[in-house]
Amino acid sequence: MSWTLTLPLVLPFLTAVAAFLLRANPAGRWVSVVGSALLLIAAGSLMLETLRAGVVVGQMGNWPAPFGITLVADLLSAIMVVITAITALAVSVYALADIDRRMEMLGYHALFNVLIAGVVGAFLTGDLFNLYVWFEVMLISSFGLLILGGRKEQIDGGIKYVTLNLVSTILFLSGIGLLYGMTGTLNLADLSLAVEEVENKGLLTVVAVMFMIAFGVKAALFPLFFWLPAAYHTPAFSVSAVFAGLLTKVGVYALIRMFTLVFDHDIGFTHEILLWVAALTMITGVLGAAAQSDFRKILSFHIVSQIGYMILGLALYTPLALVGAVFYLVHHIVVKANLFLIAGIAQRLTGSTELSRIGGLYKSAPLLAVLFLIPAFSLAGFPPLSGFWAKYVLVQATLEVEAWILAGVALAVGLLTIYSMTKIWAEAFWKKHPEGIDPTPDKLDGPTRAALLLPVGFLATLTIIIGFFPQPFVALAEASAAQLLDPTAYVTAVLGGSE
Amino acid sequence: MNSIILRIGSRYVVGILLLFSIYMLLRGHNEPGGGFIGGLIGATGFVLYAIGCGTADARAALRIMPQTIAMAGLGIALVAGLAAAAFGDALFTGQWLFIGAEGDDKGLPLSTVLVFDIGVYLVVFGAILTLVFAMEEEI
């Protein structure tokens, strides 16, 4: 039993309990920071172990697969756990200044860490029912975070969020039941073998589409995305940053996992649907963003359009396209979480997120302006930032299979992303503040400024590093895509090599 | 709700439901039941009490904040899971203690599985009551 595999899961839970017990004490918030830092170390060692061994497997409670709950980390899982830990660390530092005393007393830090545990669990589990359990852990803790503070629009967004996610959960659970009825197993590796022996392939495709809808809601795919822009602009900025970075990506991860490992029997049908869904997701997301005038609402709609790119990578189902999807996931989480954190600083300095009511940031807060430009340009795909390489790989993959229309869509959506980003730039940064307020960060005291700007700077640096030195990241994505396309190693590691 | 029947009745029902929930918790090892369902049943008792006598009374009867109960449960479940590591087994492997075992008679078997289940019981019990009390107080 390797600790490297279980620590990333156990640490956030321990942190949650400690943070809850210390919630009345100012030390409580530091518990969250220290816990996230330890999680990053644990995730790093899991990454190293995965690079060395290929696939790391652990059987909970010594019950051998496929009977017990299996934890598996292949390269994709390990990458996702590392990026989760990075986001968690950045957000928990930011939360030192962002989360007020009242929310801390209500248990913000505990809920946050339970959410992180749910996300890590979803990335590491090798069992379909266990995946469902982690989705529930995420749903309950994220609902708590969403309505923490209890303002009217938070409850409004929270209800939409939970209702749609419950529908998705029920579909997911029904799919699990049907799949279990057909194959008699829920272990992912075992399923990947068992589905080949199912005689009624038509029924299997139906179940595949059920999973596609269930995860599609979680990932905010067209036409199931509308809960996201309704909810993500309401909670505290730390909360919306971690939601924007991680939650939808768990849905994308689940789609990638299921539609490479289990449902690859009828690619002509299932992946064709995904292809058009991806294109429509990109277009509606970016058009929705163009119509918004609120900092966070624009960003929320852009999450939707960016999810389209990742699904495009999965749907094309070529080695290069999957490289693009994995690379895009990593790039997107870093950039998106960062933009939401910046929106929080902008709101603090100028008093609002409504673009018509703010301004003057360029002159008063030049450092923040630079820090905004990096993720914003990266999101739009400017070379040489991380988003450029992600889009470049994906567009090349579409050209490779001569899907001209899709390549055109991907490029046009990139162009429209620039439109939204320049809108934020022109309104929030360039024009004068309409009420004549000078939004200078000097008004904040030193520790607050450091807690707000450090994580933003850290994530921006990461974006630049991925942008200027993409080679190792692309190589990692290539290795992970190869594992996804040929799951033999995954299957034998789970079923054959139990400790 | 101001109903004298519900108010008096719920006082007795709380006790019965709590007892039944513990029965379900212990029964759960080999038969249908367990910590999750036990916690739900136990919480139902206090929910009924809160409806009958108000959340202030229910909180007073509970003595401990439901959030604290849930977190304590999470802690207990974690400790039960991690305990296996101390014996050199994979996490969440059940560790058994047979009290008074002779030959084929296994005596009284105690295990970390039960401790874990008690943790689950407390998590469910605390979480449900946190939610219901909060909602009752909103209305």
UniProtKB/TrEMBL annotation, chain A:
<feature type="transmembrane region" description="Helical">
    <location>
        <begin position="30"/>
        <end position="48"/>
    </location>
</feature>
<comment type="function">
    <text>NDH-1 shuttles electrons from NADH, via FMN and iron-sulfur (Fe-S) centers, to quinones in the respiratory chain. The immediate electron acceptor for the enzyme in this species is believed to be ubiquinone. Couples the redox reaction to proton translocation (for every two electrons transferred, four hydrogen ions are translocated across the cytoplasmic membrane), and thus conserves the redox energy in a proton gradient.</text>
</comment>
<feature type="transmembrane region" description="Helical">
    <location>
        <begin position="401"/>
        <end position="422"/>
    </location>
</feature>
<feature type="transmembrane region" description="Helical">
    <location>
        <begin position="131"/>
        <end position="149"/>
    </location>
</feature>
<feature type="transmembrane region" description="Helical">
    <location>
        <begin position="68"/>
        <end position="94"/>
    </location>
</feature>
<keyword id="KW-1003">Cell membrane</keyword>
<dbReference type="InterPro" id="IPR050586">
    <property type="entry name" value="CPA3_Na-H_Antiporter_D"/>
</dbReference>
<feature type="domain" description="NADH:quinone oxidoreductase/Mrp antiporter transmembrane">
    <location>
        <begin position="126"/>
        <end position="412"/>
    </location>
</feature>
<dbReference type="Pfam" id="PF00361">
    <property type="entry name" value="Proton_antipo_M"/>
</dbReference>
<keyword id="KW-0472">Membrane</keyword>
<dbReference type="GO" id="GO:0042773">
    <property type="term" value="P:ATP synthesis coupled electron transport"/>
</dbReference>
<feature type="transmembrane region" description="Helical">
    <location>
        <begin position="326"/>
        <end position="346"/>
    </location>
</feature>
<feature type="transmembrane region" description="Helical">
    <location>
        <begin position="367"/>
        <end position="389"/>
    </location>
</feature>
<feature type="transmembrane region" description="Helical">
    <location>
        <begin position="6"/>
        <end position="23"/>
    </location>
</feature>
<feature type="transmembrane region" description="Helical">
    <location>
        <begin position="273"/>
        <end position="291"/>
    </location>
</feature>
<keyword id="KW-1133">Transmembrane helix</keyword>
<feature type="transmembrane region" description="Helical">
    <location>
        <begin position="202"/>
        <end position="227"/>
    </location>
</feature>
<dbReference type="InterPro" id="IPR003918">
    <property type="entry name" value="NADH_UbQ_OxRdtase"/>
</dbReference>
<keyword id="KW-0812">Transmembrane</keyword>
<feature type="transmembrane region" description="Helical">
    <location>
        <begin position="239"/>
        <end position="261"/>
    </location>
</feature>
<dbReference type="GO" id="GO:0008137">
    <property type="term" value="F:NADH dehydrogenase (ubiquinone) activity"/>
</dbReference>
<dbReference type="GO" id="GO:0005886">
    <property type="term" value="C:plasma membrane"/>
</dbReference>
Automatic annotation (TrEMBL), chain B:
<feature type="transmembrane region" description="Helical">
    <location>
        <begin position="108"/>
        <end position="134"/>
    </location>
</feature>
<keyword id="KW-1003">Cell membrane</keyword>
<feature type="transmembrane region" description="Helical">
    <location>
        <begin position="12"/>
        <end position="29"/>
    </location>
</feature>
<keyword id="KW-0812">Transmembrane</keyword>
<feature type="transmembrane region" description="Helical">
    <location>
        <begin position="68"/>
        <end position="88"/>
    </location>
</feature>
<dbReference type="GO" id="GO:0005886">
    <property type="term" value="C:plasma membrane"/>
</dbReference>
<dbReference type="InterPro" id="IPR007182">
    <property type="entry name" value="MnhB"/>
</dbReference>
<comment type="similarity">
    <text>Belongs to the CPA3 antiporters (TC 2.A.63) subunit B family.</text>
</comment>
<protein>
    <submittedName>
        <fullName>Na(+)/H(+) antiporter subunit B</fullName>
    </submittedName>
</protein>
<feature type="transmembrane region" description="Helical">
    <location>
        <begin position="35"/>
        <end position="56"/>
    </location>
</feature>
<keyword id="KW-1133">Transmembrane helix</keyword>
<dbReference type="Pfam" id="PF04039">
    <property type="entry name" value="MnhB"/>
</dbReference>
<keyword id="KW-0472">Membrane</keyword>
<dbReference type="InterPro" id="IPR050622">
    <property type="entry name" value="CPA3_antiporter_subunitB"/>
</dbReference>
<feature type="domain" description="Na+/H+ antiporter MnhB subunit-related protein">
    <location>
        <begin position="5"/>
        <end position="130"/>
    </location>
</feature>
